Amino acid sequence: MKAPLRPPGFADAFAALGAARRRALLAQAPRWWPADTHLAWDELRLRPPPRGFTVREWWLGLQLGRRARSRLLPLTDGVGAAFRYALPDALLALLHGLDRGLDAAAATAAPALAEPALWERTVAGALRDEAIASAQLAGATTPHAAAKELLRTGRPPRDASERMIQNLHRALLHLRDGRDEPLTPAAVLALHWSITEGTLDDAAVCGRLRPAGDAPSVKNAGANRAWSAPPPAEDLPARLAALCAFANGGTPDHFVPPVVRAMTLAFWLAHDRPFVDGNGRTARALYVWALWRQGHEVFAPLALSPAGLRAPERHAAALRAVADGEGDLTPFLLWQAGVIKEALAALGADVQRKTAEPAAAPQVFARADLNPRQQALLAHALREPATRYVIVAHQRSHNVTHQTARDDLFDLVQRGLLTVRRDGRSYVFLAPADLAARLGQPAEPLPTVAPVAPVALPPSLTPASPEPPPPAPDPASPAPAVVLQFPFEIVND
């Protein structure tokens, strides 16, 4: 693939203009700024420039406007120059569209918000999709369907790709529960450990900053530019502390739109590359955590990484545009805003599909004796009659306890709407071939069961030893730390 052409350096190219050309450029450039969409040099150079100016002069005139309207960030490049961003009309329109999109998505998702079971299904599905896509962006080769089966059933991973997906899913669950906690350097290291544990060639680098002397390579840099050079390892502790202060809203002094702050946080960690490996996965996880912190509940079921997986060239183009602008993050922000719009559209379609389920399976949802989780499972069984259901998958799909999921499924067995058999130490539940006919029959009242007595099963289904419940917490163990902490010792190189 041919490397993109480098744009002219702003300072040298502007100084090389004659006095007359500089005056003409300063007089005309402000007329170009309102329509500026922050195209990268590689795109702009192929378009016709304004009459009387060369493409090079057009580029310099646009750079004048971008710099004049920029706001500085506490993130600095390899020579200490601050990264910056602007809020051009194109970005303001996108941010306004996001606000309207969030309102529209909230209205579309209102049935899900009002129905906890449906909402938990939507959030659980988005977390699975985000974990799978983020891992695939990092090189995981597990197909999407197999990855969903891995996360729904909770079975042990078979290879490094599955381990990567499982780690990311577990980390996202922790981050969602801890979205109101402030970010600390120790929490970032703990997050990296939880994401990369068991997936790196050298286990010793999990949860540790880059060692002294480590110089990570920069892909698609084109040349050794200051904007793309990660900082030396000895600067990483201070820069990580600054990143956390920015994530928590402590810096800068001026107002930063919350969504812009979340996007910048992801870019910051990816730019600094504080770890030997796993920087992209960690940056994407922190990005969704920062969005969850904004208070918009509708951010919870958004999966953002799938858009990057569908069009990785758009991400690379946004980073090249940042390089072309010598540290201007605006093109990156424009791209990320577009990704959120795509995710909002996907959320609306998903919620509409889920809320349409009662019309697609009226015989299921007419059964008032079934709870929403049971109705959802039976509606799925009508669509996919060969599906094998297990307790852990039902638990994870609806974000309920193991005992609640177990009770749901055995209640359906007792009603004659599922069959059950043993598979090793686990139960496997299947839909009977005549499920639709059974659902059409009037519900029969269940026999009265004493509150403390277990549900009676046929002798052929009674296991020799009951399925072990989840281990109870040890009363002597210390209280768990905040959600963003993980159970291991942090070592900060």
Terminal Cα separation, in Å?
A: 38 Å
- Cross-sheet strand order for the largest sheet: 1-2
Q: So how many helices?
A: 22
What radius of gyration results from the CA coordinates? 27 Å
State the name of the first-level CATH class of the largest domain.
Mainly Alpha
Strand proportion: under 5%
What best-fitting shape do the alpha-carbon axes yield?
elongated
The count of domains is 3
The succession of helices and strands, N to C, reads HHHHEEHHHHHHHHHHHHHHHHHEEH
Task: Provide key terms for this protein.
493 residues; mainly alpha; Fic-like fold; Arc Repressor Mutant, subunit A; 3 domains; two-stranded antiparallel ribbon; 4% strand; elongated
Provide a descriptive summary of the structure in words.
With 493 residues, the protein is mostly helical. It has helices spanning 10-16, 19-28, 41-44, 55-68, 89-108, 110-114, 116-137, 144-153, 160-177, 185-196, 236-247, 258-272, 279-292, 305-310, 312-324, 330-355, 357-360, 362-365, 372-383, 391-398, 402-414, 435-440, and strands spanning 71-76, 82-85, 419-423, 426-430. It has three domains: 10-68, no CATH class; 73-354, Orthogonal Bundle (Fic-like fold), CATH 1.10.3290.10; 368-442, Winged helix-like DNA-binding domain superfamily/Winged helix DNA-binding domain (Arc Repressor Mutant, subunit A), CATH 1.10.10. The strands form two sheets. It has a two-stranded antiparallel sheet. The protein has a two-stranded antiparallel ribbon with strand order 3-4. Strand 3 (419-423) and strand 4 form a beta hairpin. Helix 7 packs across helix 8 and helix 12 runs antiparallel to helix 13. The model is unreliable at 220-224, 448-467 and 475-493 (pLDDT under 50).
